Amino acid sequence: MGSHTCVALIEAGFTPIILDNFSNSHPAVLQRLAQITGRAVVCEQGDVLDTPWVEAVLRRHQVAGVMHFAGDKAVGESVAQPLKYYRNNISGAVSLLEAMQAANCQTLVFSSSATVYGDPASVPITEDFPRQHTNPYGHTKLVIEDMLAAMQVADPAWQLGVLRYFNPVGAHPSGLIGEDPSGIPNNLMPFVAQVAIGKRPFLNVYGNDYATPDGTGVRDYIHVQDLAQGHVAALQRLLQSGESFTVNLGTGSGNSVLEVVKAFELASGRPVPCQMAARRPGDVAQCYAYPALAQRLLGWRAERTLADMCTDVWRWQSGNPNGYQ
Ligand code: UFG
User: Has residue 325 been placed in a domain?
Assistant: First the structure.
């Protein structure tokens, strides 16, 4: 998400500075970004938990606004290792905000998630739906949202854009950057891509008895390029209006697991064998956004189709079978 947003920021005339400890990313991405954008992107290597270092970087580059992507995001891992999530996500956000405060930088775009809606009572989901959490990862997003709201009360000068992502998939159309999960992918699209390329024999479809048209889970898959442009629109809105906001970033429509599989087979020309499996604990039947607020506030809406998402993932996967290695 960070690398794709860097490209979108450069295209919109911003100069991004990357801060990364490369715990869940690869330095090779910097070379790829240079290839795509035709310019070297500055990267400072360090940890978001190191508050004085973050402050020094913000000061050195006279940073006007921050986008905070540095969170862990695997639901299952968060259940097994909750402290890792509370430390990296919550302590990481506290550290970043302290550094921003010290450096007099009060403009932040924060990566939240549709996970804050838990198991929604209905779909599509609007921003005023009740929030709940079903795992430590979701809890960290909820706590950080609350922390941001409290800071806004304490100091109205903060300009805070909270973006609730639905299901980001896809890759840059160049095929040079994309998702490179370590180990067995947790999420549907990277798993499907690895089945199509022959790395894994079949996809487990987690449940075909949900109350959905074909019985499999329905999600709001959104192209990472659309999401990247949503970040740029959010930053521009904050810098222009000075007003804080919380918005859903989704397409407004859902697709089932089997629809994703079909679309991927079509885009790749490869079969994706499936095996029905038990429901995955914690999964909900349907989750998709009502995205009108983002359109009204940011003048943004998702434009790319499920076919675009699959085509771009396949270009990335087939051109980089081992990711950035
Ligand atoms: N699925 C399978 N087989 C797999 C993987 C997933 O059938 O191997 C199904 C799931 O059961 C679900 C759908 O594919 O119905 C999507 O699953 P993902 O794991 O890709 O995405 P989730 O909706 O579970 O999770 C995503 C983000 C989380 C976030 C959550 C809610 O990955 O970070 O949305 O916003 F918390």
Answer: no
Chain segment 171-187, per-residue pLDDT in tens: 999 999 999 988 899 99
The finding on whether 115 has its CB within 6 A of some atom of ligand 1 is: yes
In a domain, 286, yes or no: yes
What is the residue range of 44's domain?
A: 2-319
Residue with tokens 């999401």: 227
Flag whether the pTM goes above 0.90: yes
Number of domains in the chain: 1
Predicted confidence at residue 281, as pLDDT, reads 86
Whether residue 124 is preceded by a cis peptide bond, meaning omega within 30 degrees of 0, is yes
Q: How many CB atoms lie within 10 A of CB 296?
A: 11
CB-CB contact of 277 with 248 (8 Å) = no
Q: Which residues are catalytic?
A: 137
CATH number of the domain encompassing residue 193? 3.40.50.720
| Residue with CA closest to ligand 1 atom 4 | 188
Q: Does ligand 1 lie within 6 Å of residue 280's CB atom?
A: yes
Tell me, using a 6 A CB cutoff, whether residue 205 lines ligand 1. Answer: yes
Using a 6 Å cutoff on CB, does residue 172 contact ligand 1? no
Residue 115 resides in a domain: yes
Which of ligand 1's atoms lies nearest the C-alpha of 257? Answer: 14
- In one-letter notation, the amino acid at residue 80 is A
Q: Specify the ligand 1 atom closest to the Cα of 116.
A: 35
3-state secondary structure of 205: strand
Query: Is 324 inside a domain boundary?
Result: no
Ligand 1 centre from 187 Cα, in Å? 5
Q: What is the pLDDT of residues 136-164, one digit of tens each?
A: 999 999 999 999 999 999 999 999 999 99
The tokens describing 276, both together, are: 């029905």
- Tell me the per-residue pLDDT of 205-239, one tens digit each, with 9 for 90 and over: 999 999 999 999 999 999 999 999 999 999 999 99
